[in-house]
């Protein structure tokens, strides 16, 4: 069997640290919960911490959040697809938008449901993912302000997620200037200047975050304590709130090199082995975990003396060397994961999700 655990004490430590840091700097923030893939048990633990706003990119996950607490404000954080407009208005209090026609559909659906739907308009600042072009944003806001049942509550931008474009003081100042221009031209108050994400947190310490940035959306730093900008862990935070455990289902001393003509494996790769004595052996363990659940590049064994030497759809192969720790069939191996590792595991229905509280 294989299972993942969430250490609620470590997660609380991360939450308390971020809450203190951001509130001290006049910043409201939302947890980006898409890492949890809508798992109700884990979402309940997050909501218990006192989170007031949760962001997700799947409307089904927002539905789960609303089933836990209708007091939590939900945010749909990608441009809404047309076929999901009715559910987005129903389960998302706020949505991120970049297409005028989509907002028109949201307006019609919000009127139908007797609601006012809030939106944050995303501006393109260099990442070339979602965002209204800078030369078009004034006309865009002008048209959207006229729509019924729509309340524009923010302006935002996305950086780093696709091409790795890092946030900078100049880019974020530019976003603040756009907000000021909109308020002056249309005599409207914009509540959120949402320019902050996990990668933006270090700019607070560097004194490079413009005062106008007042809203952050944080996922990886909250869950994994990661300083995304510098690819390290914040000293004051926990990076292993999630732990993966997988069972040894076979343990045998075998040759270290396969025998026979080498073709392509299931990934279409031809593995090249270094020259060595074909009689050389080691203790090899098969693990009840495979590529269907995880990409081996995104996990590492907690025991540094062990090494992953192969993978198939449903099993990993681990070299135990001389097996000095005396692992047996049925023993559990522990793994640490990065963000994408946790995301893949959480998305696997075959991996049990457990809570660790101590």
TrEMBL record:
Alphabetical keyword list: Isomerase, Pyridoxal phosphate
Classification via Gene3D superfamilies: Alanine racemase
> Per UniProt, what is one Pfam family of this protein?
Ala_racemase_N
The molecular function terms in GO held by this entry are: alanine racemase activity; pyridoxal phosphate binding
* Any GO CC annotation of this UniProt entry: cytosol
Every Alanine racemase N-terminal domain range: 7-223
Does the entry feature the keyword Isomerase, yes or no? yes
- The source's superkingdom equals Bacteria
The name this protein goes by in its record: Predicted amino acid racemase
Species of origin: Sunxiuqinia elliptica
């Amino acid at each position: 069997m294989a299972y993942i655990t969430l250490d609620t004490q470590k997660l609380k430590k991360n939450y308390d640290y971020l809450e203190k840091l951001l509130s001290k700097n006049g910043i409201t923030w939302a947890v980006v919960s898409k890492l949890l893939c809508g798992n109700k048990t884990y979402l309940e633990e997050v909501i218990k911490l006192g989170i007031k706003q949760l962001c997700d990119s799947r409307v089904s996950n927002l539905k789960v959040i609303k089933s836990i607490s209708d007091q939590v404000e939900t945010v749909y954080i990608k441009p809404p697809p047309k076929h999901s407009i009715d559910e987005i208005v129903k389960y998302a209090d706020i949505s991120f938008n970049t297409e005028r026609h989509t907002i028109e559909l949201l307006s019609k659906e919000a009127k139908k449901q007797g609601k006012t739907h809030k939106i944050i308009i995303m501006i393109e600042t260099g990442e070339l993912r979602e965002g209204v072009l800078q030369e078009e944003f004034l006309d865009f806001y002008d048209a959207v302000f006229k729509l019924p049942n729509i309340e524009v509550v923010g302006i935002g931008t996305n950086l780093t997620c696709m091409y790795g474009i890092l946030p900078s003081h100049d880019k974020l100042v530019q976003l603040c200037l756009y907000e000021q221009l909109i308020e002056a031209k249309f005599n409207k108050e914009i509540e959120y200047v949402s320019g902050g994400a996990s990668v933006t947190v270090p700019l607070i310490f560097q004194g490079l975050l413009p005062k106008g940035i007042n809203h952050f959306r944080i996922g990886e730093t909250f869950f994994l304590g990661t300083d995304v900008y510098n690819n390290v862990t914040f000293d004051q935070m926990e990076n292993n709130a999630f732990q993966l455990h997988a069972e040894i289902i076979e343990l045998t001393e075998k040759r270290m090199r396969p025998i026979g003509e080498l073709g392509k494996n299931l990934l279409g790769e031809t593995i090249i082995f270094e020259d060595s004595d074909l009689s050389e052996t080691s203790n090899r363990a098969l693990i009840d975990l495979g590529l269907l659940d995880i990409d081996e590049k995104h996990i590492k064994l907690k025991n540094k003396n062990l090494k992953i030497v192969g993978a198939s759809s449903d099993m990993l192969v681990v070299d135990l060397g001389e097996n000095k720790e005396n692992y047996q069939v049925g023993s559990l191996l522990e793994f640490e994961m990065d963000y994408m590792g946790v995301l893949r595991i959480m998305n696997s229905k075959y991996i049990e999700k457990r809570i660790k509280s101590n």
